[in-house]
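Subject: sequence -> structure tokens, single chain

Hey, anyone have a minute? Need the predicted structure for the following. Not urgent.
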Amino acid sequence: MRSVRFDTWFPWTISANPYFDEAWVSAVDGKTYGTIALWRMREMCKRLYRLFNGGEVEGGFIYHPAGGPPMNVVESFVNIRETGEGPYMKGESLKAAYPQDMMRACISGKPYGLIEQHNLKGAPLQNQNRIGACLVAGVRPGIHQRPW
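Reply:
Had a minute. Here:
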């Protein structure tokens, strides 16, 4: 095995585990609430990154399909980040699906040092519509291509 590809983004699940200091009690209603387990996700990615980037496997990579904006605390241990689902997949127009200010922050991995790939699946927009929007923002469009 040379790489790991997650088939979903890293879980944004809420954890109220008091042993990991992920629970808090509201001063208003006295209920216990959880937090997102970012540090556990970071540790998992860090360990996988070390394994597949010289620890056990030479030249491996971690491939992460992302469902939201970059999570640098976690994704600093990812080699390739793929976007394309969510608003991009279902947008009725280029303006709705690909607002340029959001693309530069949420799709382009360059500011964060990530290799970014944007898949072009979905409807009603066609591939030729999506490619232009990606190129303007400096994002590499891919037509259901994976790097393996």
